[in-house]
Amino acid sequence: MKAQRVEMFVSPSATPADTSGLQALADAGKIKPDTLVALVGKTEGTGAHDDWGRVWADVALREWTAKFLGVPVDEVARHVIFVLSGGCPGVITPHIAAVAREWVDAPGSSDGEDKRLVVGRAGSEAIAPEEVGRMGMIRKVAEATREAMKDAGLTDPKDVHLVMVKVPGLTTASIKDAESRGKTVVSHDLTFGPEGAGVYANDGAALGVAMALGEVPESSLSDEVVRRNWDLYSEVAMTSSGGEKRHGEVVVFGNSSQSVSPLRIGHAVTRDFIDAEGVRSALRSAGLRFEDGLPDEADLNRLVHVFAKSVIPGSDQVRGRRITLLDDAHAYEIGKALGGMLVASVTGRTTNYVSGGERNSHQGPPGGNIVAAVVRIEED
Q1: Domain range for residue 168?
Q2: 166 noted as active-site residue
Q3: Which of 10, 15, 138, 329 is 20 to 30 Å from 30 at the Cα level?
């Protein structure tokens, strides 16, 4: 039988257009044209809707990938999924994680308890401006998530530990397009503020994941619940948006007994901005064995990558004490920086994927944030 073997390689970026790390992986044979399935990373810039650093990185990476695969640039999306999150405030190092998957001969299914990393990817149908942050987006992301699960060979949502999604945001041009056709849009605010188009896009995508995984029934969803009913959320969705997108791009990470990967993924949810134990729980969920305190160097040598959300809570209280973050003009950047610092304080590294900065989200429970970790399996 054939089984998946997934690898993940993390390369720091010197500039948004830096592809030298990917080229080094290609030269070493660690990624190949027929194994590269996704590029996920953090790009330096504002992180806002007009983040040209992210756009620059996307263009450079697509050009490099087109040459690597030997296909036209406009065909790259059919082969490799891109999920780039802009903004690296604080101690977040710009980087790209290359995800490679190959199908190898396996003697038979492994012990059902020995589940290892699998990955699946899918693209959604085109998402129109009037669908952003509404049921049109939710349904299309849900369908793409189901397709990505199928591509990964996953049938049980409990085996899914991370779903990364990049969806279209709104721009002045796309709003004009919708209105020229007699349509309305969810917001004319192009920021990531509480009523901004960016957060509606991110949260529509998150609810699409929640719908696909059965975390939220479709009967509970409507245009009106988006960014209104915080009891509806996904514990594994990490979403971001950009005006340069026209389709949703979905990557599902999970564990399967049909995998022979040397990696495993796990996840946990922090209860607030200062919950280091939540980060440690994610590392343990993935397979690190430390009990109390911080992981030691042997543990950290097995850590491949950490993915985290850093959403600003709607309350001005953290564990009963007032904070002033909600009144800060730079709260978006500070929120993301706080998440980067929290993860780095546990992992001792700065090449962590930390997305966030928005106020409240359907990505994780109210006040909490999702953390997922990929670790290398310790062989007996």
Answers
A1: 111-261
A2: yes
A3: 15
Using CB atoms within 10 A of its CB, is residue 1 exposed (0-12), middle (13-18) or buried (19+)? Answer: exposed
| Structural domains of the chain, count | 3
CA gap 169, 178 in Å, rounded: 13
Are residues 55 and 87 located together in one domain of the fold?
A: yes
- Same-domain status, 69 and 190: no
Grouping H, G, I as helix, E, B as strand and the rest as coil, residue 92 is: coil
How far apart, in whole angstroms, are the C-alpha atoms of residue 333 and residue 330? 6
Q: Which of 166, 245, 309, 336 is catalytic?
A: 166
47: left (phi over 0), alpha (psi -120 to 50) or beta: left
Distance, CA of 72 to CA of 292 (rounded, Å): 51
**Residues 334-365: tens digit of each pLDDT:** 999 999 999 999 999 999 999 988 889 999 99
The answer to whether residue 240 is catalytic is yes
**Helix ranges (DSSP H) in 28-171:** 52-69, 135-152
List 13, 124, 240, 241, catalytic entry: 240
**Whole-prediction pTM:** 0.94
